[in-house]
Design goal:
The chain has 148 residues and is α+β, with helices and mostly antiparallel strands. It has one domain: Translation Initiation Factor IF3 (2-Layer Sandwich). 33% of the residues lie in helices and 34% in strands. Strands 1, 2, 3, 4, 5 and 6 form a six-stranded mixed β-sheet that branches. Strand 5 and strand 6 form a beta hairpin. The longest helix is centred in the middle third of the chain and has 23 residues. The radius of gyration is 21 Å and the shape is globular.
């Protein structure tokens, strides 16, 4: 009987220690313009493709092509959440730019946040989720040719 009590206590402690901690998942709504104004964006986005959030004033759409999703993550360890979010959003825009150029179009229109397949439309902001070590942005948009 004396041996059973320490074994029960040990089993209880092991169960408590093996339960996963709730991971941090902080949601941010941030202005896309801040991403476009980053010095790194000015280097990596060459201006041949323009980006328009859903509800944002858009030039006349001449032709629409396929829709696509860009899901990008970045290491946020030791970084400010909002900085990490901007980096993840920039990565998503770079991915859209590369595919748009390969398709011969000059815009991505009707862009919405699409985190975990939940649509969140804003004419000015994108959604980002930041955890302890990773920040992520998922954008969905339609490739298009727009008037100059």
């Amino acid at each position: 009987m004396k041996l059973a009590l320490p074994l029960v206590a040990l089993a209880c402690a092991g169960t408590l220690l093996s339960t996963p901690a709730a991971a941090r998942d902080t949601k941010y709504m941030l202005p896309l313009q801040e991403v476009l104004d980053m010095p790194e964006a000015k280097e990596k986005l060459d201006g041949s493709v323009r980006f328009y959030l859903s509800g944002q004033r858009t030039p006349k759409v001449l032709e629409k092509k396929d829709s696509d999703v860009s899901n990008k993550k970045t290491n946020s360890f030791g970084k400010d959440d909002e900085d990490a979010c901007r980096w993840a959003a920039l990565s998503a825009l770079i991915s859209f730019q590369e595919k748009a150029k390969s398709m011969g179009v000059n815009a991505v229109v009707d862009m919405v946040s699409y985190y975990r397949k939940d649509t969140n439309a804003s004419a000015t902001e994108y959604e980002c989720h930041a955890g302890a070590v990773v920040a992520g942005v998922t954008l969905k948009g339609t490739y298009a040719k727009v008037a100059n």
